[in-house]
Structures are given as structure tokens and as C-alpha cells.
Automatic annotation (TrEMBL):
It comes from Streptomyces coeruleorubidus. InterPro entries: Glyas_Bleomycin-R_OHBP_Dase, Glyoxalase_6, VOC_core. This is VOC family protein. It comes from the Bacteria. Transmembrane segments: none annotated. Residues 4-118 form the VOC domain. Pfam families: Glyoxalase_6 (PF18029).
């Protein structure tokens, strides 16, 4: 029986860790968490905000997914969108999900991210 979602893994090109740290920690406000030593050798980096974890793994033949994405629930979505825009991130609002306010953006390597807040 599944009881929870433990983390979401996204791919990134090798050598992009500093850009990912600047975005996920600096822009999104997540905290980097250490990878176990055996996994750290593979590259990438892991982040946490509360119970939410995003793992970014290095992938040699990286191509950002055009449709697949994590949905990240936020509070104060208007201020959060303004924060991303102030850091140069494109914010695309979408009103198609009933009962939610949401927007899409992309991390520095092209991964699509959805940010949503229940109304």
C-alpha cells in the first residue's frame, strides 16, 4: 500500500549543479540536503522545503520534458510569482484547474514546474 510520495526526481545536465543551487535554494527558497556519499559521486543535488523533496540527478543525454512536471503547492502565490519574475524566471499563469490559482515556470535547465495554491 502506498502511503506517501517520498520525493520527485528531475533530470539535469552534468555540471549544472551550481545553476540548480542558485535557483532551487536562492530563488525558490528550498534547502539543499546532502546526498549520500555513494550517490553524490553521480552528480546532481537534492533540495527540501518542509516535507517536499526534489532530487536533481545528472543525466548524460539530458533533455527537459515538455509536459511532465511536479506540482508544488505554495502559499501567497502572487508574491511567489513576483519573486520568480524578479529573478528573471518566466511566469505563465493558467486558470484551467478549478479551485486553484496556478502558474508554470522553468528551472535554469528547462524543467517545467507548476506552482499552485488552492482557492
Amino acid at each position: 500500500m502506498i502511503v506517501a510520495l517520498d520525493y520527485v526526481q528531475l533530470a539535469a545536465p552534468p555540471g549544472s549543479e551550481e545553476r540548480l543551487r542558485a535557483y532551487y535554494a536562492g530563488v525558490l527558497g528550498m534547502t539543499e540536503i546532502p546526498k549520500p556519499p555513494l550517490l553524490a559521486r553521480r552528480g546532481g543535488c537534492w533540495f527540501r522545503a518542509g516535507a517536499v523533496q526534489l532530487h536533481l540527478g545528472a543525466e548524460e543525454d539530458f533533455r527537459a520534458a515538455k509536459k511532465a512536471h511536479p506540482g508544488l503547492r505554495v502559499t501567497g502565490i502572487d508574491a511567489y510569482a513576483a519573486r520568480l519574475a524578479a529573478h528573471g524566471a518566466l511566469v505563465t499563469w493558467d486558470s484551467a484547474l478549478p479551485g486553484h490559482k496556478r502558474f508554470y515556470s522553468h528551472d535554469p535547465v528547462g524543467n517545467r514546474l507548476e506552482f499552485l495554491e488552492p482557492l
